[in-house]
Amino acid sequence: MPADLVLLSARLLDPGTGELLPHTALAARDGRIVFLGDDRDARTLAGPGSTVVDLRGAVVTAGLTDGHLHPVSGAERTMGVDLSGCRDLDAVRTALAAAVRQLRPGAWLRGWGLDPNAFGAAPVGSAALGPVLDGVPALIDLFDAHSALASERALQRAGVDGPRRFEQGSEIVCDADGRPTGLLLEDAACELVEAVAPRPTEAEVLARTAEVLRAMAASGLTGGHAMDANGDSLAVYTALEAENALPLRLRIAPWCRPETDDDGVAELIRLQGTGGALWRVAGVKLFMDGTIDNGTAWLETPDCHGDCAHAYWPDPQRYTDVIAALHRAGVPTATHAIGDAAVRHVLDSVEKAQAESPGVVRHRVEHIETVPDDTVRRFGPLGVAASMQPTHCCEFTRADHTDNWSRRLGEERAGRAFRCRDLWEAGARVVLGSDWPIAPYPPLTVMAGARHRRPADLSLPPHGPGQALTALQALQGMTVHPAWAAGEEDRAGRLAVGHRADLTVLADDPLTVPDTDLAELPVVLTVVGGRVTYRGAGG
Question: In 463-487, which positions are buried (b, 16+ CB within 10 angstroms) versus exposed (e)?
Protein backbone atom coordinates (compact mmCIF):
# COMPACT_ATOMS: atom_id res chain seq x y z
CA MET A 1 0.00 0.00 0.00
CA PRO A 2 1.46 3.42 -0.94
CA ALA A 3 2.44 5.89 1.76
CA ASP A 4 0.33 8.97 2.33
CA LEU A 5 3.39 11.16 2.91
CA VAL A 6 7.01 10.83 1.82
CA LEU A 7 9.67 13.28 2.98
CA LEU A 8 13.01 13.22 1.13
CA SER A 9 16.45 14.82 1.49
CA ALA A 10 15.83 15.56 5.15
CA ARG A 11 17.83 15.64 8.34
CA LEU A 12 15.91 13.61 10.92
CA LEU A 13 16.31 14.81 14.51
CA ASP A 14 15.03 12.52 17.26
CA PRO A 15 14.29 14.66 20.34
CA GLY A 16 14.59 11.62 22.56
CA THR A 17 18.35 11.45 22.05
CA GLY A 18 19.11 14.81 20.44
CA GLU A 19 20.89 12.93 17.65
CA LEU A 20 20.43 13.14 13.89
CA LEU A 21 19.31 9.73 12.67
CA PRO A 22 21.38 7.99 9.98
CA HIS A 23 18.53 8.39 7.50
CA THR A 24 17.40 10.98 4.97
CA ALA A 25 13.78 10.00 4.37
CA LEU A 26 10.56 9.33 6.24
CA ALA A 27 7.25 7.88 5.10
CA ALA A 28 3.87 7.86 6.82
CA ARG A 29 0.67 5.90 6.27
CA ASP A 30 -2.62 6.00 8.16
CA GLY A 31 -1.25 8.64 10.53
CA ARG A 32 1.85 6.69 11.61
CA ILE A 33 5.51 6.68 10.66
CA VAL A 34 6.06 3.49 8.64
CA PHE A 35 9.55 4.04 7.25
CA LEU A 36 12.85 5.66 8.14
CA GLY A 37 15.62 5.14 5.60
CA ASP A 38 17.21 6.52 2.45
CA ASP A 39 15.63 8.47 -0.37
CA ARG A 40 15.84 5.67 -2.95
CA ASP A 41 13.84 3.22 -0.85
CA ALA A 42 11.42 5.91 0.24
CA ARG A 43 10.53 6.77 -3.37
CA THR A 44 9.35 3.20 -3.91
CA LEU A 45 6.70 3.80 -1.24
CA ALA A 46 5.13 6.72 -3.08
CA GLY A 47 2.01 6.22 -5.14
CA PRO A 48 -0.23 8.44 -7.30
CA GLY A 49 -1.99 9.87 -4.25
CA SER A 50 1.07 10.34 -2.05
CA THR A 51 2.32 13.74 -0.92
CA VAL A 52 6.04 13.79 -1.71
CA VAL A 53 8.21 16.65 -0.45
CA ASP A 54 11.90 17.20 -1.16
CA LEU A 55 13.06 19.05 1.96
CA ARG A 56 16.52 19.90 0.64
CA GLY A 57 18.25 19.40 3.96
CA ALA A 58 15.59 20.81 6.28
CA VAL A 59 15.33 19.28 9.75
CA VAL A 60 12.41 17.02 10.67
CA THR A 61 11.66 16.47 14.33
CA ALA A 62 8.73 15.18 16.35
CA GLY A 63 5.80 17.57 16.29
CA LEU A 64 5.99 20.43 18.76
CA THR A 65 3.22 20.36 21.37
CA ASP A 66 2.19 23.31 23.53
CA GLY A 67 1.72 21.90 27.02
CA HIS A 68 -0.76 24.57 28.14
CA LEU A 69 -2.98 26.75 25.96
CA HIS A 70 -6.59 27.91 25.54
CA PRO A 71 -7.54 27.77 21.83
CA VAL A 72 -11.27 28.57 21.86
CA SER A 73 -11.60 30.75 24.94
CA GLY A 74 -8.39 32.51 23.87
CA ALA A 75 -9.73 33.07 20.38
CA GLU A 76 -12.80 34.77 21.84
CA ARG A 77 -10.80 36.68 24.47
CA THR A 78 -8.48 38.19 21.84
CA MET A 79 -11.26 39.63 19.68
CA GLY A 80 -11.01 42.99 21.50
CA VAL A 81 -8.34 45.70 21.49
CA ASP A 82 -4.86 44.30 22.08
CA LEU A 83 -3.12 46.08 24.97
CA SER A 84 -0.30 43.57 25.39
CA GLY A 85 2.24 45.92 23.84
CA CYS A 86 1.39 48.87 26.11
CA ARG A 87 4.17 49.44 28.62
CA ASP A 88 2.78 52.51 30.43
CA LEU A 89 -0.53 54.24 31.10
CA ASP A 90 -0.08 56.77 28.29
CA ALA A 91 0.16 53.93 25.79
CA VAL A 92 -2.89 52.24 27.33
CA ARG A 93 -4.95 55.43 27.18
CA THR A 94 -3.91 56.07 23.57
CA ALA A 95 -4.88 52.56 22.47
CA LEU A 96 -8.22 52.72 24.28
CA ALA A 97 -9.03 56.17 22.92
CA ALA A 98 -8.43 54.95 19.38
CA ALA A 99 -10.73 51.99 19.99
CA VAL A 100 -13.44 54.19 21.53
CA ARG A 101 -13.46 56.38 18.41
CA GLN A 102 -14.42 53.32 16.36
CA LEU A 103 -17.36 52.38 18.58
CA ARG A 104 -20.99 52.95 17.80
CA PRO A 105 -22.82 55.00 20.49
CA GLY A 106 -23.59 52.78 23.47
CA ALA A 107 -21.48 49.87 22.22
CA TRP A 108 -19.21 47.90 24.52
CA LEU A 109 -15.44 48.02 24.38
CA ARG A 110 -13.51 44.83 25.09
CA GLY A 111 -9.74 44.66 25.57
CA TRP A 112 -7.13 42.13 26.60
CA GLY A 113 -3.49 41.80 27.60
CA LEU A 114 -3.37 44.72 30.06
CA ASP A 115 -0.15 44.47 32.08
CA PRO A 116 -0.37 45.74 35.69
CA ASN A 117 3.22 46.95 35.31
CA ALA A 118 1.78 49.71 33.10
CA PHE A 119 0.31 51.24 36.28
CA GLY A 120 3.74 51.53 37.92
CA ALA A 121 3.44 51.59 41.69
CA ALA A 122 -0.16 52.84 41.55
CA PRO A 123 -3.05 50.44 42.25
CA VAL A 124 -4.83 49.00 39.23
CA GLY A 125 -8.17 50.73 38.80
CA SER A 126 -10.34 52.35 36.16
CA ALA A 127 -9.74 55.83 37.59
CA ALA A 128 -6.12 55.66 36.42
CA LEU A 129 -7.29 55.54 32.82
CA GLY A 130 -8.69 59.04 33.09
CA PRO A 131 -11.69 60.21 31.06
CA VAL A 132 -11.00 57.96 28.08
CA LEU A 133 -13.73 55.49 29.15
CA ASP A 134 -16.24 58.05 30.48
CA GLY A 135 -19.70 56.82 29.55
CA VAL A 136 -18.32 53.76 27.75
CA PRO A 137 -19.21 50.25 28.97
CA ALA A 138 -15.81 48.58 28.88
CA LEU A 139 -14.38 45.34 30.18
CA ILE A 140 -10.63 44.81 29.83
CA ASP A 141 -8.91 41.54 30.66
CA LEU A 142 -5.59 41.85 32.44
CA PHE A 143 -2.79 39.82 30.94
CA ASP A 144 -3.11 36.96 33.44
CA ALA A 145 -6.76 36.26 32.47
CA HIS A 146 -7.53 35.98 36.19
CA SER A 147 -8.65 39.58 36.55
CA ALA A 148 -10.40 42.30 34.60
CA LEU A 149 -10.90 46.03 34.72
CA ALA A 150 -14.46 47.29 34.27
CA SER A 151 -15.41 50.88 33.54
CA GLU A 152 -17.93 52.72 35.70
CA ARG A 153 -20.63 52.35 33.05
CA ALA A 154 -19.98 48.60 32.75
CA LEU A 155 -20.32 48.19 36.53
CA GLN A 156 -23.58 50.12 36.45
CA ARG A 157 -25.00 47.88 33.72
CA ALA A 158 -24.01 44.81 35.72
CA GLY A 159 -25.48 46.18 38.96
CA VAL A 160 -22.12 45.95 40.71
CA ASP A 161 -22.05 48.69 43.35
CA GLY A 162 -20.10 47.16 46.24
CA PRO A 163 -18.37 44.07 47.64
CA ARG A 164 -19.90 40.57 47.47
CA ARG A 165 -19.12 37.12 48.84
CA PHE A 166 -18.25 34.27 46.49
CA GLU A 167 -17.91 30.48 46.73
CA GLN A 168 -14.35 30.74 45.39
CA GLY A 169 -11.40 33.06 45.89
CA SER A 170 -12.85 36.00 43.95
CA GLU A 171 -13.22 39.67 44.85
CA ILE A 172 -14.76 42.93 43.71
CA VAL A 173 -12.01 45.33 44.75
CA CYS A 174 -13.46 48.37 46.53
CA ASP A 175 -12.03 51.56 47.99
CA ALA A 176 -12.18 52.56 51.65
CA ASP A 177 -15.77 53.76 51.17
CA GLY A 178 -16.91 50.46 49.66
CA ARG A 179 -17.08 51.73 46.08
CA PRO A 180 -15.80 49.38 43.35
CA THR A 181 -12.51 50.51 41.79
CA GLY A 182 -13.26 48.56 38.62
CA LEU A 183 -10.78 45.78 39.37
CA LEU A 184 -12.39 42.33 39.42
CA LEU A 185 -10.34 39.40 40.71
CA GLU A 186 -10.93 35.82 39.49
CA ASP A 187 -13.78 34.24 37.58
CA ALA A 188 -16.80 34.70 39.81
CA ALA A 189 -16.25 38.45 40.04
CA CYS A 190 -15.40 38.88 36.35
CA GLU A 191 -18.44 36.87 35.31
CA LEU A 192 -20.79 39.44 36.89
CA VAL A 193 -19.87 41.93 34.17
CA GLU A 194 -19.24 39.36 31.44
CA ALA A 195 -22.85 38.22 31.89
CA VAL A 196 -24.22 41.56 30.65
CA ALA A 197 -21.59 42.25 27.98
CA PRO A 198 -22.41 41.19 24.41
CA ARG A 199 -20.83 37.96 23.19
CA PRO A 200 -19.68 37.12 19.67
CA THR A 201 -21.89 34.81 17.66
CA GLU A 202 -21.15 31.11 17.28
CA ALA A 203 -20.08 31.74 13.70
CA GLU A 204 -17.68 34.49 14.80
CA VAL A 205 -16.10 32.27 17.47
CA LEU A 206 -15.78 29.40 15.00
CA ALA A 207 -14.12 31.61 12.38
CA ARG A 208 -11.77 33.22 14.88
CA THR A 209 -10.77 29.85 16.37
CA ALA A 210 -10.07 28.46 12.89
CA GLU A 211 -7.90 31.50 12.17
CA VAL A 212 -5.95 31.05 15.42
CA LEU A 213 -5.40 27.33 14.88
CA ARG A 214 -4.14 27.91 11.33
CA ALA A 215 -1.64 30.41 12.67
CA MET A 216 -0.58 27.95 15.36
CA ALA A 217 0.06 25.31 12.72
CA ALA A 218 2.10 27.86 10.74
CA SER A 219 4.25 28.42 13.84
CA GLY A 220 5.18 24.72 13.90
CA LEU A 221 2.68 23.46 16.46
CA THR A 222 1.19 20.04 15.83
CA GLY A 223 -0.68 19.72 19.10
CA GLY A 224 -1.66 21.27 22.38
CA HIS A 225 -2.96 20.49 25.83
CA ALA A 226 -6.05 22.70 25.99
CA MET A 227 -6.69 23.67 29.58
CA ASP A 228 -10.39 24.39 29.44
CA ALA A 229 -13.61 23.30 27.75
CA ASN A 230 -15.39 26.54 28.57
CA GLY A 231 -18.45 27.76 26.71
CA ASP A 232 -19.03 25.92 23.45
CA SER A 233 -15.41 24.80 23.08
CA LEU A 234 -16.22 21.14 22.45
CA ALA A 235 -18.84 22.03 19.85
CA VAL A 236 -16.30 24.27 18.13
CA TYR A 237 -13.77 21.43 17.93
CA THR A 238 -16.48 19.13 16.58
CA ALA A 239 -17.49 21.63 13.91
CA LEU A 240 -13.92 22.34 12.84
CA GLU A 241 -13.08 18.66 12.54
CA ALA A 242 -16.24 18.06 10.51
CA GLU A 243 -14.98 20.70 8.07
CA ASN A 244 -11.47 19.14 8.03
CA ALA A 245 -10.30 22.44 9.51
CA LEU A 246 -8.69 21.22 12.74
CA PRO A 247 -4.92 21.46 12.13
CA LEU A 248 -3.75 20.52 15.66
CA ARG A 249 -4.14 17.42 17.80
CA LEU A 250 -5.75 18.61 21.06
CA ARG A 251 -6.01 17.03 24.50
CA ILE A 252 -8.67 18.85 26.52
CA ALA A 253 -9.08 19.18 30.28
CA PRO A 254 -12.44 20.65 31.42
CA TRP A 255 -12.52 22.71 34.62
CA CYS A 256 -13.50 21.55 38.07
CA ARG A 257 -14.26 24.52 40.32
CA PRO A 258 -14.75 24.73 44.09
CA GLU A 259 -18.53 24.82 43.60
CA THR A 260 -18.51 21.57 41.58
CA ASP A 261 -20.47 18.97 43.59
CA ASP A 262 -20.11 15.19 43.52
CA ASP A 263 -22.49 14.87 40.57
CA GLY A 264 -20.39 17.40 38.69
CA VAL A 265 -17.23 15.41 39.40
CA ALA A 266 -18.98 12.26 38.16
CA GLU A 267 -19.90 14.07 34.95
CA LEU A 268 -16.28 15.11 34.43
CA ILE A 269 -15.28 11.47 34.81
CA ARG A 270 -17.95 10.42 32.31
CA LEU A 271 -16.63 12.93 29.74
CA GLN A 272 -13.20 11.31 29.66
CA GLY A 273 -12.28 9.84 26.29
CA THR A 274 -15.03 11.61 24.36
CA GLY A 275 -14.04 13.55 21.27
CA GLY A 276 -13.06 13.05 17.66
CA ALA A 277 -10.11 11.87 15.61
CA LEU A 278 -7.88 14.82 16.52
CA TRP A 279 -9.33 15.96 19.84
CA ARG A 280 -10.49 14.28 23.00
CA VAL A 281 -11.27 15.03 26.61
CA ALA A 282 -8.40 13.66 28.68
CA GLY A 283 -8.02 14.98 32.20
CA VAL A 284 -9.48 17.65 34.46
CA LYS A 285 -8.17 21.15 35.16
CA LEU A 286 -8.38 22.60 38.67
CA PHE A 287 -7.17 25.79 40.35
CA MET A 288 -5.49 25.87 43.75
CA ASP A 289 -4.84 29.62 43.63
CA GLY A 290 -4.91 32.67 41.38
CA THR A 291 -1.96 34.85 40.41
CA ILE A 292 0.74 36.76 42.23
CA ASP A 293 0.23 39.87 40.11
CA ASN A 294 -3.34 40.36 41.28
CA GLY A 295 -2.80 39.15 44.85
CA THR A 296 -4.79 35.92 44.60
CA ALA A 297 -1.98 33.35 44.64
CA TRP A 298 -1.61 31.20 47.77
CA LEU A 299 1.68 31.80 49.55
CA GLU A 300 3.01 30.38 52.79
CA THR A 301 3.49 33.99 53.93
CA PRO A 302 1.41 36.88 52.47
CA ASP A 303 2.95 39.21 49.91
CA CYS A 304 4.10 42.74 50.70
CA HIS A 305 0.51 44.03 50.46
CA GLY A 306 -0.83 41.40 52.83
CA ASP A 307 -2.42 39.56 49.88
CA CYS A 308 -1.89 36.03 48.52
CA ALA A 309 -2.86 34.50 51.88
CA HIS A 310 -5.68 32.16 50.85
CA ALA A 311 -6.42 29.23 48.56
CA TYR A 312 -8.79 29.54 45.61
CA TRP A 313 -10.79 26.69 47.17
CA PRO A 314 -12.37 28.05 50.38
CA ASP A 315 -12.09 24.51 51.76
CA PRO A 316 -8.75 23.05 50.57
CA GLN A 317 -9.77 19.66 51.98
CA ARG A 318 -12.55 19.52 49.39
CA TYR A 319 -9.89 19.90 46.70
CA THR A 320 -7.97 16.98 48.25
CA ASP A 321 -11.14 14.86 48.19
CA VAL A 322 -11.78 15.68 44.53
CA ILE A 323 -8.22 14.76 43.57
CA ALA A 324 -8.69 11.43 45.36
CA ALA A 325 -11.96 10.75 43.48
CA LEU A 326 -10.43 11.58 40.10
CA HIS A 327 -7.31 9.53 40.87
CA ARG A 328 -9.43 6.47 41.82
CA ALA A 329 -11.20 6.81 38.48
CA GLY A 330 -7.88 6.95 36.62
CA VAL A 331 -8.39 10.55 35.54
CA PRO A 332 -5.23 12.66 35.24
CA THR A 333 -5.39 16.14 36.68
CA ALA A 334 -3.71 19.44 35.91
CA THR A 335 -3.82 21.94 38.76
CA HIS A 336 -3.01 25.62 38.43
CA ALA A 337 -0.75 26.30 41.42
CA ILE A 338 1.51 29.34 41.39
CA GLY A 339 2.39 30.09 45.01
CA ASP A 340 4.45 27.90 47.30
CA ALA A 341 1.51 27.02 49.57
CA ALA A 342 -0.66 26.10 46.60
CA VAL A 343 1.99 23.84 45.07
CA ARG A 344 2.62 22.17 48.42
CA HIS A 345 -1.08 21.44 48.89
CA VAL A 346 -1.41 19.95 45.41
CA LEU A 347 1.56 17.64 46.00
CA ASP A 348 0.22 16.68 49.43
CA SER A 349 -3.15 15.82 47.84
CA VAL A 350 -1.60 13.75 45.04
CA GLU A 351 0.63 11.92 47.50
CA LYS A 352 -2.37 11.07 49.67
CA ALA A 353 -4.39 9.88 46.66
CA GLN A 354 -1.51 7.68 45.50
CA ALA A 355 -1.16 6.12 48.94
CA GLU A 356 -4.88 5.33 49.12
CA SER A 357 -5.22 4.07 45.52
CA PRO A 358 -1.94 2.84 44.05
CA GLY A 359 -1.75 3.03 40.27
CA VAL A 360 -0.20 5.08 37.52
CA VAL A 361 -2.16 8.26 36.89
CA ARG A 362 -0.22 11.16 35.40
CA HIS A 363 -0.94 14.28 37.44
CA ARG A 364 0.55 17.71 36.73
CA VAL A 365 1.05 21.08 38.36
CA GLU A 366 0.70 24.15 36.15
CA HIS A 367 2.91 27.26 36.46
CA ILE A 368 4.89 26.68 39.72
CA GLU A 369 6.17 30.26 39.84
CA THR A 370 7.90 30.33 43.24
CA VAL A 371 8.73 27.29 45.36
CA PRO A 372 11.44 26.34 47.88
CA ASP A 373 13.98 23.55 47.50
CA ASP A 374 12.07 20.92 49.47
CA THR A 375 9.06 21.31 47.16
CA VAL A 376 11.22 21.07 44.03
CA ARG A 377 12.53 17.72 45.23
CA ARG A 378 9.05 16.18 45.60
CA PHE A 379 8.02 16.23 41.92
CA GLY A 380 10.27 13.44 40.70
CA PRO A 381 9.45 10.79 43.34
CA LEU A 382 5.71 11.53 43.03
CA GLY A 383 5.81 11.31 39.22
CA VAL A 384 4.08 14.69 38.93
CA ALA A 385 4.82 16.66 35.77
CA ALA A 386 5.96 20.27 36.12
CA SER A 387 4.13 22.29 33.47
CA MET A 388 6.07 25.54 32.99
CA GLN A 389 5.58 28.65 30.87
CA PRO A 390 9.03 30.27 30.60
CA THR A 391 7.78 33.25 28.60
CA HIS A 392 5.73 34.33 31.64
CA CYS A 393 9.05 34.92 33.38
CA CYS A 394 10.65 36.45 30.28
CA GLU A 395 7.87 38.88 29.39
CA PHE A 396 6.30 39.87 32.72
CA THR A 397 9.13 39.90 35.26
CA ARG A 398 12.53 41.58 35.36
CA ALA A 399 15.97 40.56 36.53
CA ASP A 400 16.24 43.64 38.76
CA HIS A 401 12.92 42.76 40.49
CA THR A 402 11.32 46.13 39.75
CA ASP A 403 8.23 44.51 38.23
CA ASN A 404 4.91 44.09 40.03
CA TRP A 405 5.33 40.30 40.46
CA SER A 406 8.75 40.63 42.09
CA ARG A 407 7.83 43.59 44.27
CA ARG A 408 4.89 41.70 45.70
CA LEU A 409 7.02 38.68 46.55
CA GLY A 410 10.14 40.36 47.87
CA GLU A 411 13.72 39.43 47.09
CA GLU A 412 13.87 35.93 48.55
CA ARG A 413 10.79 34.52 46.83
CA ALA A 414 11.38 36.45 43.60
CA GLY A 415 14.86 34.95 43.58
CA ARG A 416 13.42 31.43 43.24
CA ALA A 417 11.35 32.25 40.18
CA PHE A 418 10.28 29.75 37.51
CA ARG A 419 12.76 27.05 38.50
CA CYS A 420 12.72 25.08 35.25
CA ARG A 421 16.31 23.83 35.48
CA ASP A 422 16.11 22.93 39.18
CA LEU A 423 12.92 20.96 38.63
CA TRP A 424 14.46 19.16 35.65
CA GLU A 425 17.63 18.24 37.54
CA ALA A 426 15.54 17.05 40.51
CA GLY A 427 13.88 14.48 38.26
CA ALA A 428 10.65 16.23 37.28
CA ARG A 429 9.27 15.91 33.75
CA VAL A 430 9.20 19.55 32.68
CA VAL A 431 6.51 20.27 30.09
CA LEU A 432 6.74 23.61 28.29
CA GLY A 433 3.85 25.72 27.04
CA SER A 434 2.70 29.25 26.37
CA ASP A 435 -0.62 29.51 28.24
CA TRP A 436 -1.84 31.44 25.19
CA PRO A 437 -3.42 34.00 25.15
CA ILE A 438 -1.45 34.96 28.26
CA ALA A 439 1.80 34.82 26.28
CA PRO A 440 2.51 34.30 22.56
CA TYR A 441 2.07 30.73 21.29
CA PRO A 442 4.90 30.26 18.73
CA PRO A 443 6.74 27.23 20.13
CA LEU A 444 10.16 28.40 18.98
CA THR A 445 9.61 31.57 21.05
CA VAL A 446 8.71 29.43 24.07
CA MET A 447 11.79 27.25 23.58
CA ALA A 448 14.00 30.30 23.11
CA GLY A 449 12.67 31.85 26.31
CA ALA A 450 13.39 28.64 28.19
CA ARG A 451 16.98 28.86 26.95
CA HIS A 452 17.80 32.58 27.33
CA ARG A 453 15.25 33.76 29.99
CA ARG A 454 14.89 37.14 28.27
CA PRO A 455 11.94 38.94 26.64
CA ALA A 456 11.39 38.15 22.98
CA ASP A 457 12.87 41.49 21.89
CA LEU A 458 15.99 40.72 24.00
CA SER A 459 15.71 44.21 25.50
CA LEU A 460 16.40 43.14 29.10
CA PRO A 461 19.00 40.95 30.80
CA PRO A 462 18.05 37.36 31.66
CA HIS A 463 15.94 36.72 34.74
CA GLY A 464 17.45 33.80 36.62
CA PRO A 465 19.92 32.60 33.98
CA GLY A 466 20.81 29.65 36.20
CA GLN A 467 17.31 28.29 35.52
CA ALA A 468 17.79 28.27 31.73
CA LEU A 469 17.30 24.95 29.96
CA THR A 470 19.70 23.50 27.43
CA ALA A 471 18.71 23.37 23.77
CA LEU A 472 17.88 19.67 24.03
CA GLN A 473 15.90 20.10 27.24
CA ALA A 474 13.83 22.86 25.64
CA LEU A 475 13.08 20.63 22.64
CA GLN A 476 12.16 17.69 24.86
CA GLY A 477 9.91 20.00 26.89
CA MET A 478 7.72 20.39 23.79
CA THR A 479 7.99 16.84 22.43
CA VAL A 480 9.03 13.97 24.69
CA HIS A 481 7.65 15.34 27.95
CA PRO A 482 4.18 16.37 26.72
CA ALA A 483 3.86 12.85 25.33
CA TRP A 484 4.86 11.40 28.71
CA ALA A 485 2.42 13.65 30.57
CA ALA A 486 -0.34 12.40 28.26
CA GLY A 487 0.66 8.76 28.83
CA GLU A 488 1.54 8.50 25.13
CA GLU A 489 5.30 8.09 25.23
CA ASP A 490 4.98 4.79 23.36
CA ARG A 491 3.43 6.49 20.32
CA ALA A 492 4.26 10.18 20.34
CA GLY A 493 7.08 12.64 20.94
CA ARG A 494 9.79 10.74 19.05
CA LEU A 495 10.85 9.94 15.49
CA ALA A 496 10.31 6.19 15.36
CA VAL A 497 8.47 3.67 13.21
CA GLY A 498 5.01 3.16 14.67
CA HIS A 499 4.86 6.59 16.26
CA ARG A 500 2.39 9.22 15.15
CA ALA A 501 3.35 11.13 12.04
CA ASP A 502 3.03 14.48 13.84
CA LEU A 503 6.07 16.35 12.56
CA THR A 504 7.59 19.81 12.65
CA VAL A 505 10.06 20.64 9.87
CA LEU A 506 12.48 23.51 10.42
CA ALA A 507 14.98 25.23 8.14
CA ASP A 508 17.87 24.31 10.45
CA ASP A 509 18.70 22.26 13.53
CA PRO A 510 17.06 23.85 16.61
CA LEU A 511 19.78 22.36 18.80
CA THR A 512 22.56 24.28 17.04
CA VAL A 513 20.78 27.55 16.24
CA PRO A 514 21.75 30.19 18.87
CA ASP A 515 19.02 30.78 21.45
CA THR A 516 18.78 34.46 20.44
CA ASP A 517 18.01 33.42 16.83
CA LEU A 518 15.76 30.45 17.52
CA ALA A 519 12.45 32.33 17.51
CA GLU A 520 13.09 33.46 13.92
CA LEU A 521 13.99 30.00 12.58
CA PRO A 522 11.67 29.40 9.59
CA VAL A 523 9.05 26.67 9.78
CA VAL A 524 9.16 24.70 6.53
CA LEU A 525 6.36 22.21 7.07
CA THR A 526 3.89 21.13 9.76
CA VAL A 527 2.35 17.66 9.61
CA VAL A 528 -0.39 16.14 11.79
CA GLY A 529 -1.26 12.48 11.36
CA GLY A 530 0.64 12.38 8.10
CA ARG A 531 -1.37 15.31 6.69
CA VAL A 532 0.35 18.57 5.83
CA THR A 533 -1.27 21.38 7.81
CA TYR A 534 1.17 24.13 6.84
CA ARG A 535 3.68 24.70 4.04
CA GLY A 536 6.28 27.41 4.35
CA ALA A 537 9.11 28.39 2.04
CA GLY A 538 10.94 25.26 0.98
CA GLY A 539 8.01 22.99 1.78
Answer: bbeebbbebbbbbbbbbbbbbbbbe
